Amino acid sequence: MKSFLYSTILIALLAAVGCTTKFDINAPAKDITVVYGLLNQADSTQYVKVTKAFLGESSAYVMAQDPSLSSWGDAITVKVDEIYNGNVLRTFTLQKTYVSNKDSGIFYSHNQEIYMFKPMPLLNSKNTYQISISNSTTGKVTGATTNLVYDFTIKEPTYNPINPQIGFVSSNGTYNTSGEVKWISSKNSKVFEPLFRFHYREVDKATLDTTGDKYIDWSLNSVKASTSTGNEELVATYNGESFYRNIQAKIPVNTAVDRIIGNVDFMISAGGDDLSIYIDLNSASGSIIQERPSYTNVTNGIGIFSCRYTKKYSYKLSSYSVTKLINGEYTSQLGFK
Q1: Which of 12, 187, 258, 317 could form a Cys-Cys staple with 230, CB 3.0–4.6 A?
Q2: 233 DSSP β-pair partners
C-alpha cells in the first residue's frame, strides 16, 4: 500500500512538471555579501576578499567564470577598525586591488578583485579588529569581528641560532622513526598546521645558469588545542623516512641539472577559533550523510573573518641527512650535491 502511494505521488509530480514550460527552480534573488579574511599581525599587507552571491539561469560553473557576477563594483566601502578596550584606535579604509597569481579553479582565476590595507605600525595581537562593508546601493552594512593569535613557543625541534641543525637520519644511517615537534599554544589560537619546507636550487649543467630558490612542503597532521586560552603543550609526530619519500614524490628526475641543497624550515601556522570551526565544517566527511550545517561569523552576510599567525625557524640539514639525500634509495637519482 505504501509502495503504491509513493508511486502515485511521484507520477503526479512528474506530470505537473511536464505540463508546464515555466517551471523555475531559482528562488527570488537576494543581496548576499560574501567575506573571506584572515588577519596576520606579521604581515605588512592585509587582504580581504569581498564578493557577492549570484543567481542565474546558466550553469553555475559557467557563471563562476564571469567576474562581474560576483563583484559589487563601486557600490561598497570596506573599513577595518582597530579597537582596544572598547575604543577605536585606528580606522583603515581598504583599497580595491587585483591579484593574478591565483591557481585556476571553478571561479575565475586571473585578476581577482580583493581589498587590502597596509597598517603602519603593524597590527597588534592585543587589539580587536572589526570589519564593516557598507553598500551604497542596498543600504546594508555587513560586519564581523576577530581577535589576533598571540605569539607562541616552539619547543622542538630545538633551535640554536649559532648553528641551527636538524636531522632525519641517525649517525648509523637509519631513518629516525620517532620524530616529534612540540609547541605551546597561545591565546586566541585553536588549530595548528605544522610543516617542513625543503629549499633547493638547480644548476643547468650545460649553461651553468642557476635558478632562484625552489621549495617543496611536507605537511604533518594538523593539531587542535582543547581551548583557545593558550598555554597547552601540543605534539605532532613524524618518521624521517617520509621526509625523503616526499622529496622523491615532488621533485622530478632531471639529468640536465644539478641540485644544490638548501635549508629546511620548520613552520607552524596557527588559526583562530572561528577558523577552526569553519575548517571542521567544510572538511571532507567520512559519513554517508554529506550535508553539514553552514558556519559563518559574518553579520548580514556569509563567510569567515578570523586570524592566523605563522612562526618559522630555519635549519641546516645534518651531515648524515645530507648523505642520505645524495645517496639514499629515494633521492639518489635527483642530482643533489
Answers
A1: 187
A2: 184
**Ramachandran bin of 279, using left for φ above 0, alpha for ψ from -120 to 50, beta for the remaining angles:** alpha
Find cell 625541534 and name the residue: 157
If the chain, 337 residues long, is cut into consecutive pieces of 10 residues, what is the mean pLDDT of each piece? Answer: 34 36 47 92 96 59 55 92 97 92 56 91 97 94 97 96 95 91 97 98 96 96 96 96 98 97 97 93 60 82 96 97 96 96
Residue 10 contacts residue 87 (beta carbons within 8 Å): no
Secondary structure, 3-state, the chain = CHHHHHHHHHHHHHHHHHCCCCCCCCCCCCCCEEEEEEECCCCCCEEEEEEECCCCCCCHHHHCCCHHHCCCCCCEEEEEEEEECCEEEEEEECEEEEECCCCCCCCCCCCEEEEEECCCCCCCCCCEEEEEEEECCCCCEEEEEECCCCCCEEEECCCCCCCCEECCECCCCCECCCEEEEEECCCCCCEEEEEEEEEEEEEECCCCCECCCEEEEEECCCEECCCCCCCCEEEEEECHHHHHHHHHHHCCCCCCEEEEEEEEEEEEEEECHHHHHHHHHHCCCCCCCCCCCCCCCCECCEEEEEEEEEEEEEEEECHHHHHHHHHCCCCHHHCEC
Q: How far is the C-alpha of 181 from the C-alpha of 157, rounded, in Å?
A: 6
Pairing mode of beta strands 302-317, 33-39: parallel
Please state, as a whole number, how many other Cβ atoms lie within 10 Å of the Cβ of residue 249.
11
Given a contact cutoff of 8 angstroms between Cβ atoms, the answer to whether 226 and 185 are in contact is: no
Distance CA 153, CA 151 (A): 7
Q: How far apart are CA 38 and CA 132, in angstroms?
A: 15
